[in-house]
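Q: Structure tokens for this one, please.
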Amino acid sequence: MPEAFGFLPVDKPLGMTSHAVVAAVRRGIRMKRVGHGGTLDPLATGVLVVCIGTATRLSEYVMHTRKRYLAQVRLGATTETDDAEGQISAEQPIDQLTETAVAAALAAFNGETDQIPPMYSAIKQGGQKLYMLARRGETVERPPRRVWMQVRLVRYAAPHAELMVECSAGTYIRSLARDLGAALGVGGYLAGLRRLASGSFEQPIAWDALQAAFAEGNWARYLLDERAALPHLPEVSLNATQTEAIRHGRAIPAQNGADGTLARLYAASGAFLAIAACHAETWQPVKVFHVDQES
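A: Here is the predicted structure, written as tokens:
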């Protein structure tokens, strides 16, 4: 029986780590090859894309899609972790803070901007993860990252500002909360977060429903394929000769590709065959998936 392949957009429960979700799915489907397409912190809920079988090889493309969040920012206080998991390190009065001022400060974050990651993050610096250094009481200078955001204020009910955020991969909403508080001169931290969308995934499976499907053995009905996961990559259909070339790692002519473009290639049988990159007017295979020989 062929191994399951696809993606489960899970509604991650509050308090669970992304690793714990993956472990629970692994047990539920009785498969070892399970991963995810972009971490969510324990205090966050919402869309966590779980990759099943050889779909784990596509996780990097899922990770690098835009995300959409609904964020709760607590203004007037800061924490060591930039979120509600850390101890409050400072507080400032916000009596004079208005909704107009918050909205005006947010406008500066729209578009491309440089963002400094939080100390409590999994980014490696000098071979060590930042959160390991932070736990030892160390703070190091972090190089800024270029990110893209589109942020708007949904409502302000002191001391909380509710934000709708669309952003590029690699954006830290905790850093946005911290930087918004700093821009307003009162401090801020992330009090709550829900991921509404990860790339094309917007309708996650409720955790209880997924657990019931595991118990009943019909969880595969929730599986989505690479077309649902990567609609932003163009689809290219191959003939039998091209299929054989790609299957063996050889490049084929690209009719309408621009250099640097990635595409999903499909074998003559219609089966998903590869991710390929366009270079010098050829499709060069980047990741090839097993497809049985054509009959």
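A few notes: The radius of gyration is 22 Å. The chain has eight helices and 17 strands.
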